[in-house]
Specification:
Layout (H helix, E strand, L loop, with lengths): L7 H13 L1 H40 L4 E4 L5 E2 L2 H6 L4 E13 L6 E7 L1 H7 L8 H6 L5 E4 L1 H7 L6 E6 L2 E10 L9 E5 H7 L5 E2 L1 E6 L5 H11 L5 E3 L1 H44 L1 H9 L4 H38 L19 H28 L2 H4 L4 H7 L4 H14 L10 H26 L8 H12 L1 H7 L1 H31 L4 E4 L11 H8 L4 E12 L8 E6 L26 E5 H7 L6 E6 L2 E11 L8 E5 H8 L6 E6 L5 H11 L7 E4 H15 L1 H28 L1 H9 L4 H43 L9 H28 L2 H5 L4
Parallel strand pairs: 4-8, 5-7, 14-18, 15-17
Antiparallel strand pairs: 1-10, 1-11, 2-9, 3-4, 3-10, 5-8, 6-7, 12-19, 12-20, 13-14, 13-19, 15-18, 16-17
Helix pairs in contact: 2-9, 2-11, 2-12, 2-25, 9-12, 9-19, 9-25, 11-12, 15-16, 16-18, 16-19, 16-27, 17-27, 19-24, 19-25, 19-27, 25-28, 27-28
Length: about 850
């Protein structure tokens, strides 16, 4: 109220109303605060993690102007002299870069093999401060750790770091730590020759960091470099490297930001419904101000200012709460909110004042938008009509919103067909907003039609409840605005996530046909099986058949992350691998190039279709393949291409594999086969043996963890919607005190009046459920076929999760009934005489 005293007229018109109903004001402020807090928290967490991730990528390049980058399989180190001797190159630092699995653990550490003397001119911060430690690094078992790695692994100088290399474990001695602030990621630096030898990468490089001579044009140098590089090797600036790496998480981060804004969007409808109902109750007071000389424009400004003050209070609380929530989220869920994108980082919270200001202004803007329509209607209503009893429903009836609402829905559906902008489905998000706003504008007419068909009953409280609702259908629709918005969005997310989960389960059944899956390492790029170990695996008694897979990557575009290349052995007598194909597959003709089967994501990114010819950079040359099929892939968001392993070996001479799928004899037990495998590979300390059931369970657990934040954000939106129902019923109950008094005078008990309110709440909740499920289904189609398809490039089959939907509907019905009953208790607590005094 202190803020109101700065505006004397507003204090006189609104102060008493807010003082009389502080609960409704608090709910409205909390609705905006809740939305702003979620938006601020998600944005700060995302921006902090993305900024730290980009910093980590750039820290590897140091003072380099250009980075020559190869695929995971690397490129010949004989290329280094050709690059280093170019005229514009001042210094060149060759390196191998791998994500190595930590022995006995499920996580990885980035290993960077450097030439210490050449790196001193390009990446001096990646060398130990002590000169002796730099010479110690030349030993074959020496490693220097970043501070982040040392803290995470609880290691110090002279401790031992154990990594998996192939199927073996190597022990490295920590000789020093990098300077504080050298890099924010967990990094292990080795001598390049030692890293090549110990990690089985002799003759390979993964990157060359280049420092140009002063005055050299970076773009011209990049073009000259690219002309001498193999097709699989790219040259880019460190900034482009960071942007390409961050592109993989952009869609995930954008969708979380949009989900956080859903709560703020719902808060705007809460302001709308509470303001509309409050202004309907204050119509005589506002009409009297008009009679006393207040102009329409002045009244409109005062009422909009009410909404702005609510927005200011809610935004201030929300920004403070959002910063605290962001700090908690980074500490408990890391920078990826549980999705696993930034697992190697522990980012510190970075407060962006501009972002806080934007969300503060957004909170005010949404509050003003929610208050604008009620204020406009109240200012335009003639005072003589507004002073008449029962003018509230008549005023709403004069607001013809059905036609504009229908037009907005049509516009939204049309906009959903628009293409993405920069891989972000901007049009899809606007389509959801237009459909949602349009449906709420159509809701009053729909409520009138539905409530007019309520069945008759002899139970007096229910009959009176039906009569009340049939007389005020538009007030019912207004009070339901917030809950309809949040409930429909929750329904749409349930359908989308349920469809995704069912599609993922089906996909796992198709993609995991074997009985056992054996990996040289759980994660990372340093685990593999040699040809000799493959022979041992196939010879294990009880194993009927083995299908081997070699995983690499290929750069198809300089501005895109590398695509996964899966060299997979075809089953006997099969012409294609067992993948989750979508649509028909092509049988290549004898004169066609060899077949490649690409994922939906790769097909979208490359703009190809079945029958298209693609050039894959494998080895040091481009090789032509024909797209023989397009398949679903929920595991690799960067896209994947499958080719026959025999063709891959012929092109690269690389016979190593990363994993093996084992088909067992009918009388074999998985547990016994696992023991025999470990006996056959006694040195494979990091060997991971997983059954089909276990692998499926792990995959679904990862899915549920990834979408946990999504559920939390949607539940938050529903809670805000329930605030709206509570505020709406509270406003109506207080406006009906005289009605309750008359009912008590003619003999109705307090319990019967409560039953009448519960019946009203149940009926209103039922209308909300029907409308919310229908609207949510429409929005889910946009989410599934537009937003997710354009964001992540994967498709899914529509599935309605009836059990969660039924449970959510029952919760809403119960909450509506209880909320209506509780909201009316204050009005029923007034003395009967005082309640009807104004009519005497």
């Amino acid at each position: 109220m202190t803020l109101l005293r700065m505006f004397p007229v507003l204090h006189a018109t609104s102060g008493s109303a807010w003082s009389d109903h502080p609960g409704r004001l608090a709910l409205t402020v909390l609705g905006i605060a809740f939305g702003v807090a979620l938006g601020v928290a998600v944005h700060l967490i995302n921006s902090s993690a993305a900024g730290e991730f980009s910093m980590a990528v750039r820290s590897l390049a140091g003072e380099a102007d250009l980075v020559v980058r190869g695929p995971r399989s690397g490129f010949p180190d004989a290329l280094y002299p050709n690059v280093a001797k170019l005229p514009g190159i001042l210094a060149a630092s060759p390196a191998i870069e791998l994500d190595a699995q930590l022995a006995g653990r499920r996580d990885t550490i980035k290993v960077l093999g450097l030439d210490p003397f050449r790196a001193a001119r390009v990446q001096p911060h990646l060398l130990a401060e002590s000169r002796d430690a730099t010479f110690d690094l030349l030993e074959s078992d020496a490693v220097v750790l970043s501070r982040a790695a040392a803290d995470a692994l609880r290691l110090n100088v002279n401790d031992v770091l154990r990594l998996q290399a192939g199927s073996d474990v190597i022990a490295l001695r920590v000789v020093a730590l990098l300077p504080a602030g050298a890099t924010p990621q967990r990094l292990a630096v080795m001598d390049i020759a030692a890293a090549q030898w110990r990690l089985g990468r002799v003759g390979e490089l993964h990157r060359i960091d280049l420092k140009l001579r002063p005055g050299t044009d970076a773009r011209a140098a990049a073009r000259e470099l690219q002309s001498i590089l193999p097709p699989a090797v790219l040259v880019a600036t460190p900034q482009a490297e960071a942007e390409r790496s961050a592109a993989l998480t952009r869609a995930y981060r954008t969708n979380l930001d949009m989900l956080a804004l859903v709560a703020l969007f719902t808060g705007a409808f809460l302001v709308f419904s509470t303001q509309f109902l409050a202004l309907l109750r204050r119509r005589p007071q506002l009409a009297l101000m008009r009679v006393l000389g207040a102009t329409r424009a002045r009244l409109l400004r005062l009422l909009v200012l009410e909404g702005a003050l609510v927005g200011i209070a809610g935004s201030a609380i929300g920004v403070a709460a959002g910063c605290a929530l962001a700090r908690f989220g980074i500490e408990r869920l890391a920078g990826d909110l549980g999705a696993g994108y930034f697992g190697a980082l522990a980012p510190a919270l970075t407060i962006d004042p501009l972002a806080l200001l934007i969300y503060f202004v957004l909170g005010i803007a949404f509050a003003v938008a929610g208050a604008a329509l009620p204020a406009l209607e109240a200012s335009r209503r003639p005072p003589a009509l507004a002073l008449k009893p029962g003018d509230q429903e008549e005023a709403l009836r004069r607001l013809h919103t059905a036609l504009p609402g229908t037009a907005l829905i049509a516009m939204g559906l049309a906009l959903s067909q628009a293409p993405p902008i920069g891989d972000i489905p901007i049009a899809g998000y606007f389509a959801v907003a237009l459909v949602l706003v349009g449906a709420i504008l159509v809701a009053p007419r729909c409520a009138e039609l539905v409530l007019s068909r309520l069945p008759s009953t002899r139970y007096a409280p229910a009959a009176l409840a039906a009569a009340q609702l049939q007389a005020t259908p538009r007030q019912v629709a207004v009070s339901l605005a917030a809950i309809l918005a949040s409930f429909s969005l929750m329904v749409s997310m349930l359908i989308m996530v349920g469809s995704f989960r069912v599609s993922l389960t089906t996909w796992l059944d198709q993609m995991l046909p074997a009985d056992l899956y054996v990996r040289a390492g759980r994660v990372g790029e340093t685990g593999y099986f040699t040809p000799e170990e493959q022979t041992r695996i196939a010879a294990v008694p009880g194993v009927r058949e083995v299908v081997y897979v070699r995983s690499q990557n290929v750069f198809m575009r300089a501005d895109r992350p590398a695509l996964s290349l899966l060299a997979r052995a075809l089953p006997p007598h099969a012409v294609r691998p067992p993948l989750s194909f979508q649509g028909a597959q092509l049988e290549p003709l004898p004169q066609d190039p060899p077949p490649a089967w690409i994922s939906e994501i790769a097909a979208d990114l490359l703009g190809t279709q079945i029958g298209s010819h693609i050039e894959l950079p494998i080895g040091s040359r481009l090789h032509s393949f024909i797209v023989a099929g397009i398949w679903r892939d929920y595991a690799r968001q960067n896209g994947a291409i499958v080719i026959d392993r025999a063709r891959y070996i012929a092109l690269t001479s690389d016979e190593r594999v990363n994993e093996a799928a084992l088909f067992l004899n009918a009388d074999s037990e998985a547990e016994g086969i696992g023991r025999r495998l470990r006996e056959a590979l006694p040195g494979a300390a990091g060997l991971e043996i997983t059954s089909r059931r276990e692998l499926k369970k792990i995959s679904l657990e990862v899915f549920d963890r990834t979408f946990a934040v999504t559920y939390a954000l949607e539940i938050a939106a529903v809670v805000i919607g329930l605030f709206g129902v509570s505020a709406g019923f509270s406003a109506q109950a207080l406006a009906r005190r005289r009605e309750f008094g008359v009912l008590r005078h003619i003999g109705m008990t307090r319990r019967q009046v409560g039953a009448m309110l519960a019946c009203e709440g149940f009926a209103v909740g039922g209308f909300g459920v029907i409308a919310g499920v229908g609207l949510g289904w429409v929005i889910s189609l946009i989410l599934i076929h537009v937003i997710n398809r354009q964001s992540f490039h994967w498709s899914m089959d529509l599935h309605l999760p009836w059990q969660p939907l039924t449970a959510l509907a029952l919760v809403l019905l119960a909450a509506s009934s209880i909320t209506a009953l509780v909201s009316g208790r204050r009005a029923m607590s007034d003395e009967v005489t005082r309640a009807v005094r104004e009519d005497w």
